[in-house]
Batch of 2 targets.
Target 1
Amino acid sequence: MPRRYDVRMRFSRFGERFTRQTGTRELMDDLGRALAADEPVNLLGGGNPAHIPEMLALFRREFRRLLDDEREFRRMVADYADPAGEQGFRAALARLLRDACGWTVGPENIVLTAGSQSGFFQLFNLFAGPRSDGGYGRILLPLTPEYVGYQDLGVEGEIFTARRPAIERLPGRQFKYHVDFATLTVPQDVAALCVSRPTNPTGNVLTDEEIGRLGALARGAGVPLILDGAYGLPFPGIVFTPATPYRDEETIVCLSLSKLGLPGVRTGIVVARPEVVEALGAMTATTSLAVGSVGPVLMRELVASGAIAQVSESVIRPYYERRSRQALEWLADSLDGYEYCVHRPEGAFFLWLWLPGLPIGSAELYRRLKARGTLVLSGHHFFPGLEEDWPHRHECLRISYAQHPDAVRAGLAAIGAELRRL
Amino acid sequence: MPRRYDVRMRFSRFGERFTRQTGTRELMDDLGRALAADEPVNLLGGGNPAHIPEMLALFRREFRRLLDDEREFRRMVADYADPAGEQGFRAALARLLRDACGWTVGPENIVLTAGSQSGFFQLFNLFAGPRSDGGYGRILLPLTPEYVGYQDLGVEGEIFTARRPAIERLPGRQFKYHVDFATLTVPQDVAALCVSRPTNPTGNVLTDEEIGRLGALARGAGVPLILDGAYGLPFPGIVFTPATPYRDEETIVCLSLSKLGLPGVRTGIVVARPEVVEALGAMTATTSLAVGSVGPVLMRELVASGAIAQVSESVIRPYYERRSRQALEWLADSLDGYEYCVHRPEGAFFLWLWLPGLPIGSAELYRRLKARGTLVLSGHHFFPGLEEDWPHRHECLRISYAQHPDAVRAGLAAIGAELRRL
């Protein structure tokens, strides 16, 4: 239909910045299209958690209880929450974190966000970018590969600076990344450090020692350490190695309800100093009035009773650990005879496949797999802020093993077939 | 507890901008505190919708149906939605808008946001602010008073320019604002026009003629007209005067599930050209992965069947119209003998009280009322972008009549008592 009027559709700089094709968009577009597709797709790309029957039954039971309680139901859907998030949930969570982790926190240390990603948008832009004193703050990622979703969050300019990891070779085609403390310093313009634990995309779990040293480094530099625990401790607890939940007064811990199995409720959690909590609440009030109450009200009793930590330990962790072993076996079968390495799966729900010397680059491999109905993520997205070139960046794939086992198995077989075609 | 380390807590310019005290923060902080308060508060400040029993029963029935359907339940909470929002809801809504309003729209014209306010954050910053060509776009508000929540949404600089209204005096201490077309032009730097209909805060409903003229003005200037229908047509339909839903191809219509009674699910809706839909979806993917699915999945069948429009007409509109008449009567009783005017309540759920010659200013009146347990909003917040000074700005209050009738009555009595104290 011809347009009668030539309406200016000129976007602002902000508009241009946030409508570029990004790794996150690619990921979410793939996910949306796959969910709507008629043909079966092996969906090994996104971060969608598994549908664990016990967890879905638990959520359903809680929903039913809330539907029977008029006041709770109203609180869940019919009222705007406090800008910092539903107060009852925050109080219950503070108690849980005191009891389960020994953290000295109250509700004033907790602010909810519209999902973890929104929390990072707020946090990164709170600290990084141009300052009114003329300076410019950056976020230091001490270890890449690191989460693709960070990459494009900066409202203005490139807000990240990042470091390569040290690589430890392990038996059985495995390897593990470590923070390379030998070369790690905190430049003067760094406003915060940030790591995910478990690491998305690699399934690496930084050791207690590594985290302690990062905390000390941040304190020494006088900046906060942001710890992304979306897959981590104390919930959903998708961690297969011994690891202790970490927080000191200057650490900002980010948690989420998504990987418990509730990505649709969009509830992220930030545990931080009251000044940071207040700042994030103010940002929420101004830019979106309030965050949703469904997730917080739904989970409040499970948090208050500690059940959320128990099911993380007794249901969620074992579930993904089993899936991880299974995926590793299928990977070994599918890639038999091909030269590959895989990061030791210590948590989250991804295999991080390293294909040394891959002739076509991981982005092209992603496209070829997509054309054949298998969605993964190209590893090159996962180096936000790493300035130097490094062949390793183009030799890796992130493969989710959270979806239906048949899809995971078929997807891994497709990867093996594609590699043998090269 | 003394801090061991002097951690830099320096915020970026973005951080400073979004942590200022704003009208929206004041409103949301008041709301949060009132909901948590032990003492009763007459909550006439916020935009929280009423708890209409028929609507709550309807939502509950839908929830129960979804809980009994495994696939639907998963879709509601356990999967990330498409960046543009849950696809089934968007398809159903497109059909409704075609059938009920005659708009030529498909799912490609609809994008969901994390509440209406988030949609405006995205929309305003998409069009307004610094452009990469060195220009700067602004949003023209052709009629103030206009929604307080717009005020602080601009990421950089003052993005609004606004106009005073023409005032029509009506019998019975009433008045009505009109767009002052005699003086309205669209400056070259304007990137979009925006009006709310019904107007928040005044309850004004711009006439079909006024909206048609604004649409023509926008097209003539080659920019989109953003129409904020959070309280409007076709749902929740809180409109007491004859008014037709308006959209042409260049109009961006914003709707919401909040004023149906579902603010806790944070679902905003933007109906626009596919380019705008795609841009907003991209912003969502990058900054928050996806919006929540609870609201869209919950309401999908009610949208598909047209029930959402029917209950708007048969339940919601009559409910608020009754509440509006009741509030007007109580206002007349409470302010009897005092010199006041009130905007004719034509929609939404606010009384806009004008106190010509108010000696203390509306901000001080707000503080005094708050100290006595009655929360309203000072009218001075509702003139975003109006450069000129104008005594009228400091002579008005926004009073919600959506809360419990006892609170509304007591609050109006408190206002009368306070005014007589002056």
Target 2
Amino acid sequence: MRYKLVGNRVVKVDAREKALGSALYIDDIVLPGMLYGKILRSPYAHARIVHIDISKALKAPGVKAVVTAKDLPGKGGGLVGPFIKDEPIFAVDKVRYVGEPVAAVAATDLAAADAAASLIHVEYEELPALFDPVEAMREGAPLIHDNVKGYFAVFDARRGGNVCSHTTFFEGDVERGFQESHVIVEETLRTPMQYQAYIEPIGAIAQFDGAGRVTVWSNTQGIFVTQDRICESLKIPMSKIRVIAPKIGGGFGGKIETTVQPHCVALAQKTGGRPVKIVLPREEDISNTRPRHPAIMSWKMGLKKDGTILASQMSAIFDSGAYADDGPGVVAVGAITARGPYRIRNIRMDSYCVYTNKVKTGAMRGFGNTQTTYSRECMLDIAARAVGMDPLELRMKNAIEPGDKSVGGQTLHSVGFKESLTAASEGLGWNRPKETKYRGRGMAGINHISGLLTVGSVVRLNEDGTFTIQCGAMDIGQGSDTVLVQIVAEEMGVPMDDVRLASGDTDATPYTWATTANRITYTGGNSVLLAARDVKRQMRDLAAQMLDTENLETKDKKIFAKGNPDKALTYHDLGKVSVWVKGGPLIGKSNFMVEEPTLDPRCAIGHPFGTPFSAWIFGTQAAEVEVDPDTGEVRVLKLVAAHDVGQAINVDGVEGQIEGGVVQGLGYGLCEAVLFDKGRITNPNLTDYKIPPAADVPEITPIIIETHDQTGPFGAKGIGEAALMGAAPAVANAIFDAIGVRVTELPMTAEKVLKAIQEKRAREAKAS
Amino acid sequence: MRYKLVGNRVVKVDAREKALGSALYIDDIVLPGMLYGKILRSPYAHARIVHIDISKALKAPGVKAVVTAKDLPGKGGGLVGPFIKDEPIFAVDKVRYVGEPVAAVAATDLAAADAAASLIHVEYEELPALFDPVEAMREGAPLIHDNVKGYFAVFDARRGGNVCSHTTFFEGDVERGFQESHVIVEETLRTPMQYQAYIEPIGAIAQFDGAGRVTVWSNTQGIFVTQDRICESLKIPMSKIRVIAPKIGGGFGGKIETTVQPHCVALAQKTGGRPVKIVLPREEDISNTRPRHPAIMSWKMGLKKDGTILASQMSAIFDSGAYADDGPGVVAVGAITARGPYRIRNIRMDSYCVYTNKVKTGAMRGFGNTQTTYSRECMLDIAARAVGMDPLELRMKNAIEPGDKSVGGQTLHSVGFKESLTAASEGLGWNRPKETKYRGRGMAGINHISGLLTVGSVVRLNEDGTFTIQCGAMDIGQGSDTVLVQIVAEEMGVPMDDVRLASGDTDATPYTWATTANRITYTGGNSVLLAARDVKRQMRDLAAQMLDTENLETKDKKIFAKGNPDKALTYHDLGKVSVWVKGGPLIGKSNFMVEEPTLDPRCAIGHPFGTPFSAWIFGTQAAEVEVDPDTGEVRVLKLVAAHDVGQAINVDGVEGQIEGGVVQGLGYGLCEAVLFDKGRITNPNLTDYKIPPAADVPEITPIIIETHDQTGPFGAKGIGEAALMGAAPAVANAIFDAIGVRVTELPMTAEKVLKAIQEKRAREAKAS
């Protein structure tokens, strides 16, 4: 064991309080005099607002505040959106999806708020609505937005009409690649809208103090994102907004951007100091959390007879719903990751983000890549069969290796993809004879980004020789608090109990962007590690000065003259002396933001960031299924997930991420989809929106591959998103292997599989 | 006006919430499931604890926890004390004063806690008690402590017996000075125990989370001091202790060290996660807040005929009560400041801190100097009359000037003492004919320290171009939050609304020591100013890089190319760009700790700090009184207080400090004293302990003298403590001027004044 803590299985720092039920979540918080908010939402997918009458609601019992767009600065507030500022907090002049906030009420209890909201009279004039992105792209389609503007110039290049963004990544000469290919395969694949389905719905409490400052408690993936969006939408300076996050019951991307927080603040602003709480009922959560973009992906792949992939092309349409939200980023990441973990010289990956009159979609675990990984890995299976190769061999032949480049030209050093192919296939018994006729095996290769933007940290030496980390990176249940504490404890050579993590409070921590992009272990870990090293250096300098020697050793919370453990200063001594005598407390500080080479502008149109991603993560998931030929029911028997994480920090945590990701990926592949009837969600609850129940979860074997990323903290990279991506395509390929049919649209329900079997039988009957 | 904000009158940043009543103080905080704690206290001044029986209390209705010393780690917990670790949280084996905590109970309501506490049976064996420090110093006196140990070696040099510390400052040759003097005056003066009498009693709430971490809410003058003392006493690592301070209703030194906080934590630890609140009833507050040390000061002063003071000697005995607490510091500061703002070459200032069986005394506004200033300024008056000089002239003749040295050898640059003498005497009309017979005028010169130890700060640029300060310096009502915001806003050229101050939370801020020693404007102000300059430099560097020029100007929240305001970046641009593109958010950081020359070891025995004080502050207070010769009643007609503060930051704040200080000083001089009967306080409430009522407050004229201290933020120094020191001696000297009697023991009640008048009349009658 190279490390004392890193790479071990450690108990999560919040396990005990969660197990005891003493951890506070947003709905556990009750403040004195608290009011309850209710948001009135649009019943129409697309309509002009003719008039809003709040007079009856204002007079209703218990009502303390009613807010509509007109109450906000500039009669509508600022438009928000991480890439394109196109969304008002409350609908202004028109509504664009069923469920869009139109007004809100705060009352002394929830029933009173519900009752009062129903007394708000809104007169609408219905407009023609668009539900299909392909239709929305057609010339002459009604415009959902007239005039919107992106903050980042690169996203401002709208294609016009209802296309809110279009990103292309290209390398080499894809046309020539196809010309030189012996075999060309083509297919169009479709994926559904997947809901994040975290256990805890979104909620917030807002309260103004007498000085006009607001404190917002919210289960957000990014306290600073929440602070910024409230500032933008309500024109309150950030200096007057404090955001505090309690414990969080999952996010999966749905809690990055604001949802109810500005509405809560707008209500609280009218109550003269009373706190207002809104926790979304599940059906409102589904329509507001911005689920995963549905996508239609048309692929063309060209190969030599020996299986070398010469050209790969995708054109994808992502359904953004009514607002852009993270869409421009999602489609860009979908395009940049679409090449996959393969050496392919000629690529062209186009992706469009298109407005429709449905709920807005956005970030969900995988962020565009989940869609393109599914479709690409199906294509590889199709291609392997077209050239008569084993799908494992085809992947192995084209697999990238250390020294290869990512799309965009970043040279990759930490690449465990081939190892993951080997481990996953061996773990599953890829070549083992099948036990029954209708069993099949499939696999999927995965590549994703890990780390993005900045995390600032402070590590300070306390007076008693313990340490306090200040870091705003949110643990949303994935275990990052534990990882950050582990990293600092490892670096300082102290037990984890000696390290406190202060987080979840914009007043308490340096800036960090949100918990996204597999970035907390990597970017956050690097950040706290650098800050720890900074304070360590200061401790050493102080010890050198006090012990009058540069020749020092550190052990058991002591720094001592080499070979003379009696000439020593304990961490406790250093803590006391620094504060009382020597120039002030020792405080390490860091801002971690990897500077990578800018993407070659020639290979991307509308590329998303000035710098790409810090580290790339790889993996392979392989599944064995059994298909019932009479019902179409698919039973997943086993799933092996081998993931290159650089270095596991907390092994239990990594395995937990893999297992959870696989289950969510199986849901994506087999049963999950947000369904609509003319823009209205028809399954807005966890009874009708089906996530895999425990009984359907197969044996999952997580395998950790460690490649030691030289840029990661102790060599670590991320895992969270990658863990979800492989299950759906692996199962899709296994189904084909089992029964010879390919369902090209997720989820692969028994009905769809049975239909494909019946069509295949009909074709075979016709042919015979 | 040199500055936009500094030197103005600005509204305090918390004025609105305080005026509206929305500011939360400790007793406003109610947590779900909260229990109420009651401390059982010793009824004896000195007794052995034979046995404690808690069995009945444990069975009492509503009781959830009972704690005694035996429940603490090592059967007593760690001993605490800022200088000498001599005090247990709960009495171990014996009690040393009436009111010492012996046990504590937490119950579902306060009445249940009170009832249960009375069911704890403690068997005592009374021991001989010492109430007089002079008696306690006698050989053979019973020992109050057997064996205690100081953290700082210099304070470990106990003199044995009941003397817990002894400090001497000497310069020159005091014996030779007396030999060369034409006139020698001697007198012994006495001061009482003064209670801080803040409006809000001390309180705390403690709650453990499931992970064994405790959060403590408390109205403390030092969140990090509280954190450290809980760590020391209960052996909980600081990494598991978070301290949060709500708004605070005054402190005056009584809220620096811990009082109820460890007791609250000890109870909370036994409740399995329920919060426990203790807010002290007034009578317990008085016995626990550590009032001002009573002192007996014997002076000898030698002068030439022309009024030049050649030698000054003081021997002072300070009554520490049962524990050392801040005593060693108090007596040291009393000695180091006893020379006063005068050029005296030969001095010897001795001060003893002596244990007695009374409530422990400690830090109170003035910290030892209040006592010695009173007695020294009386001596100057006596001396002036002895050499036949006007007291103003005598002071002016000996007054220190810029370039002179402090005791200890620090060269002083910012010295406005002479200006203050002039301003105060002119303001009062020193030489104006007296309007009635029994009127008199007196004055007092003041010198005190300003600034001590360290304050760490962070100033970060928010995404929207506003700023957040993180600084742990506590505003206890004196207005320092406003000053810190003003300083940063001034430096950054933004309105105060653009600056947020995050404070009062050990999780949120870098380390700082407590609100003491007139240090927040000076030390804290320097700290935030340095951090602001740090972020300003980073903003300029980023702007230079982006605008491609070093030739920059800053105005109206923009940095632009000199002479070309269109080539500009707003603070908002810089906030966004730093976070999203350029290496991370801009965060300025500082630890301010002035490194002054170490005291010459030859001039001090048992000196308190490796470095003395950063800045010295000066002032003069002059009073006019009218004495009723038949009742001895003293009416203060007018008090002029001229104070050298270097630079006023918030003029309203400085004037408020002066006015409040004068009133507290008048209380010290005329009516305040904690009274005892065999160690039991006989006036433990604000009815019987009399602070000056509004009707007795005279016309107060604050005069601000600005000398621009080159080491202070914008030239500022402190004011808080100095404001209190002059009133008592000025009034004492005015009484003598009015009626020719000197009461040598504070407070100068009508009874004492009348007695002195009667004695004088008797003497005169005898002589005639």
